[in-house]
Structure formats: C-alpha cells, structure tokens
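B., you asked whether I could sanity-check this one before it goes into the benchmark set. Here's the sequence:
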Amino acid sequence: MKIESGRSVSSAGGAKRTGGAAAPGFSLDVDEPQRAAATAPTSAITPLDALLALQGDEPGQRRSRQARRGQDALDTLEKLAAGLLTGRAPASIRADLETLRRAGEPTGEAGLDAVLQEIDVRLAVEAAKLDRMSGRA
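And here's what the prediction gave me:
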C-alpha cells in the first residue's frame, strides 16, 4: 500500500456540521431523534420498619447463633485434645480456633455471655499454645 501525503482528507458524505463547537471532521447527526433508555418500573416504597428488621438481628437469633458458636468451639477444643493425645492434630485447627474466637458477639444475656467469654479465653490460650509449639511465638 502506498501512502501519499498530497491528498487531503475529506469528511464523510452527508454529515451536517452544527457550528464550530465540534472538532474538525466530527459532527453530530441532528436529523435523528435521540432515544431514551428504557427504565425499569418502580415498586412501592418499603416501610422503614421492614428494612430495619432485615438489617438488624433479633436478640433470639443472636443468642441462637452464639450458642451454636459456643458448641462448635467446644467441639473444636475436644478435637484438638484428641489430636494432641494421638499425636495427629489437624493442621487447620489453629485457624478454626481463631475463627471461632473472632466470631463472638454479645447476646444480651449475662450468664450466656460469661460462659462464651470463658470459652473465648480457652480458644485464645490453646491457639497461643499451638503457636508456641510450632515456633511462631
């Protein structure tokens, strides 16, 4: 292909120039009407109470979730004890201890919160022991 510098560039045929605002060689086609994007139909406004209920936890749900977390923590501690006795503790147990400990939240019940706090302390102690045995501390 041969490139010739003597030729001028011509604009596309049929394009209308709409004033000096556009760059040379660029024009807007004003004959064609603009199309608006289709919008989705709107729904009724949801009451604020329903939104807050969806965002917030009910105290019963939090209590249930934390009681389940406490039971899972005790099961993990038993698994750790059995693994240490047999010499085959799972490698992922350290991460499990830390995940369970960090998932704690207050339930609003003083007795349950106290028991869960004691379990969390035990999880932290066992995680620190594992760190010390593996040479991380």
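One thing to flag: The two ends are 71 Å apart (CA to CA). Otherwise nothing jumped out at me.
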